[in-house]
Amino acid sequence: MKDLERNSVQLVTIAEEEAGQRIDNYLLRVCKGVPKSHIYRILRSGEVRVNKGRIDQLYRLETGDVVRIPPIRIAEKAAGSAPVPGAEFAIVHEDSHLLVIDKPAGVAVHGGSGVSYGVIEQLRAARPQAKFLELVHRLDRETSGLLLLAKKRSALTNLHEQMRDGTTDKRYLTLVSGNWTNPRQHVKLPLHKYTTSDGERRVVVQAGGQEAHTVFNLLRRWEGFALLEAELKTGRTHQIRVHLASSGFPIAGDEKYGDFALNKQLQKANNTRGALKRMFLHAYRITFQHPETDKPMTLTAPLPAECERFLVSLGQPTSKHS
Question: CB-based contacts of 54: which residues, under 8 Å, 6+ apart?
């Protein structure tokens, strides 16, 4: 269910895909534009009912529950605010439980932090019939590649459990600046998350921060650059970017943690090298168990054309590793 007629009482029957979530979270999702405080007020007052009975905000919905939602008045949207444009993205895999897309660089996964909408809002707008569609995990706006979305709550819960248990295997391709030598290197540096005074999320290596572990495998090397495969053992915000920058090998094109002078040079092509106008970080492979069948699945997304072109412009690598 996507939009509610808000000037009359609604009786909504909960579908299988919507079961298992708390009533407050359900209302916050379907009553778009209604302030949180108002949602909790109508819950406390008993105006929201399930199967004709009062419930509290912690009640978990079950398949077949009939939810009574009272008339809800919302403020008119600010003049000039445009509706979210529906969009589809390159689909890597889709079935009744999962949607896996190849997200382009430069697109946020969700709205917020100065972005009015992202992939999830655009997909919901493009699929108004979808009863349930939620992000399983996130990718930075500047990162391209595999993004998992759940089409059922049971699939979301199952995949979150797999990620918590460390049974999923996520691999990224990244180009770093510097003379990388180790064929395989473990980086274990604790990460601390904070917000700057202008609201920007940042991460720094700091004692007492969250434990974080990345394994880097050397794939190809050029003079001054190396193509690495990054294997996530934990899934912290900006983990790969900060682990590499703190180790002295910033990601090419990383505007937040990278080598800013180099990035400026990379944006312009020269006689021998093409231009790189994005961060070179791509989620290219993920392995997990299908939430319904338990069968192992490995999905891949090829390196985007602009990254591939930049590698070609670097010429023959000085060494290759399998």
Answer: 46
* Residue 29: its H or E element: helix 23-30
Burial bucket for residue 149 (CB in 10 Å: 0-12, 13-18, 19+): buried
Largest CA distance in the chain: 74
> Which two three-digit tokens encode residue 46?
């008993």
Burial 63-88, CB ≥16 within 10 A → b, else e:
eebebebeebeeeeeeeeeeebeeee
**pLDDT computed for residue 250 by the predictor:** 98
Distance CA 229, CA 24 (A): 41
253-276, pLDDT tens digit by residue? 999 999 999 999 999 998 888 999
Query: How do residues 58-79 score in pLDDT, each as one tens digit?
Result: 899 998 999 999 887 654 444 3
Dig out the tokens for 231 from the structure. Answer: 């294997």
82-85 long-range Cβ contacts below 8 angstroms, 24+ apart: 83/125, 84/116, 84/117, 84/121, 84/122, 84/124, 84/125, 85/122, 85/125
Tell me whether residue 90 is exposed, middle or buried, using C-beta atoms within 10 angstroms of its C-beta: 0 to 12, 13 to 18, 19 or more.
exposed
- Which residues are part of the catalytic machinery? 140
